[in-house]
What we know:
Layout: H1 2-15, E1 31-34, E2 42-43, E3 47-48, H2 53-58, E4 64-65, H3 75-87, E5 94-99, H4 102-112, E6 117-123, H5 131-139, H6 145-164, H7 169-177, H8 184-190, H9 193-202, E7 219-222, E8 225-234, H10 250-266, H11 279-282, E9 286-292, H12 312-325
Parallel strand pairs: 1-4, 1-5, 5-6, 6-8, 8-9
Antiparallel strand pairs: 2-3, 7-8
Amino acid sequence: MKQVILALGLLLSSLTPAQAADTYTQTRYPIVLVHGVMGWDSLLGLIEHMYRIPYELQRSGAKVYVPTVAFLNSNEYRADQLVRYLSALEDYKFNLFAHSQGAPTSRWAATVIPERIASITSIHGVNKGSFFADTFVKAVPQGTVRGGVIDALGKTLGYLATLLDAGNSDDLTCLTTGRCSQDSMAAAYTMTTDEMIRQNSLLGWQGLDPDGCGTGSEDLWIYGHRIKAFSWGGTDPTTTDFKWYDIFRPNMVLNEAEDAFLSLTASFSSRPSDGLTDICSQKFGRVIRIDYPLNHFDAVNHIFGETGSINVPSLYRAQANRLRNMGL
């Protein structure tokens, strides 16, 4: 009898399926990670702009694209590059995860190919402008010697990043042909509050509160196509708990310098901010949470994952799962 029971047990175990694959982030449509100003894909194939985030999404089933648009240029220019990138892909629709300037870049792209966009998630997005950009353009007016110097430095930095960015074919073409896509002053002006008021008026203020610091609709309607809108953001410019022994850890030293810079820039605004963008500008569509203890650079899991108490990739994973459960 024992032999019969054992045989049945072995038979049943052989019929049990293998452990189910992890599908927590397996969305219906691919996820596209759209970087912000001065962003890249992967420097030398080693340093990701969105550090470890593509892997953390892919390991649970997500299909992920990481395009590279202009390091420094206007929202509309970058949107045109994004449209060309997406249009060359065979996938039917996309979920755009957009950081910083990537948010208005994605919103402009959606006006061109709304039928290809399933959702836009703004991450610390510059949706109503940046107080830092406002301060910058006042300090460095366009057409002045200072403006020219800053523009030249910005372009040089952009071209250097292009050379180091594996896979940035658009800007490699720029370097070899002279048809360049780096414009430091255009990048600054496009994110000023006044300029974003103009752009949002053209975009119909969809997903935004035009009159205050409230929230907008979760549903964007563009030429009859519905696009779901989400956002999250942060309000803590300084997130590194620096100890004396961290002087021997280069990434922590860089994090401390980052925190010092963002503490200074945060003083330019009377509202809570992540150091570069205040909470009103970060709100877009359905607000998941707007007061994470994160700064603007933490939002892409830098520097090298040192982001204080928050596991940043888990925020991206949770949003992917949210979209998965919505059939997106």
